[in-house]
Amino acid sequence: MNLEKPNNLYEAVVMGLFLSVTAPHDKQSEEARSLTESLMEGLSKTELDRAFKEAEQYLKSSSERSGVGGMSGVCNCDEAQEEHEHCLGCECVLNWNESENYCRWCEERMALEKAKL
């Protein structure tokens, strides 16, 4: 995925999911989420499921490229000035309005997977 400019709607959704998790501030995260949610309306359920999985893989590979475990590419836990928790599904930093264990995107992905069963 090209993080500079998506080539189509699907790539824009994947990029939006990634940016909504990695944005450095809550306001930026919420802006990315809002825009991504509106873009999601143009994708099928199958494409959305695939986009969630691709964004999750991109988050994991991004943290692995940083050379340190966890989401170090997104969060520098050693220097964080406020207490925070990480999602058990993708290791992103949880926002204040998310559950105790999973980010909103992982919860939505798990709900979609459960609905398929």
Instruction: Tell me, rounded to a whole number, the average pLDDT.
Output: 77
Instruction: Report the sheet with the most strands, covering strand number, pairing sense and barrel closure.
Output: none
Strand content: under 5%
Structural class: mainly alpha
Separation, N- and C-terminal Cα atoms: 30 Å
**Helical percentage:** 40-55%
The best one-word shape is: globular
Number of strands: 0
Element-by-element helix/strand order: HHHH
Calculate Rg over CA atoms. 14 Å
Unreliable stretches covering 5 or more consecutive residues: 65-74
Secondary structure tally, helices: 4
Structure description:
The protein has helices at residues 9-22, 26-40, 45-65, 104-116. By secondary structure, it is an all-alpha fold. Helix 1 (9-22) packs antiparallel against helix 2 and helix 1 crosses helix 3 (45-65). The chain is built from 4 helices and no strands.
Write the layout of secondary structure elements.
Blueprint: H1 9-22, H2 26-40, H3 45-65, H4 104-116
Helix pairs in contact: 1-2, 1-3
Summarize the structure.
The chain is mainly alpha-helical and 117 residues long.
What descriptors fit this protein?
117 residues; mainly alpha
